[in-house]
Design brief:
Distance between the termini: 50 Å
Mean pLDDT: 83
Helix content: 40-55%
Radius of gyration: 24 Å
Largest sheet: 2 strands, antiparallel
Strand content: 5-15%
Shape: flat
Number of strands: 2
Structural class: mainly alpha
Low-confidence stretches: none
Order of helices and strands: EEHH
Number of helices: 2
Amino acid sequence: MEQNNYNNIQVQEDPLPAMPPLIICDSAIALWNAATDTAQFHINHGVVLPPEPIRITVEEKCWVTLMALQREEELKDTLRYLEKAWREIEEVRKLLGIQTTSIEGPM
């Protein structure tokens, strides 16, 4: 801790310097995009065969793991937003006396 002599306030210095943004290697981005496209195709066309693993290096696997974790966090945030919005519209319908039977609630 450092002490400011002017007004006797103690200031705690940040132990970790700000890190620059990570620059993901192009091959990891290409692999991520290929895997995403393949997964979307499998889902949209009902492909039930086990997927053939894409060959990747250890470094690329580290990058795509980080990308997957980031995507999961984004999806969790989106889900929280949608759940809150759904509760809000349900409350609005109650307050206004609107009954809607054709819409299903969140999963």
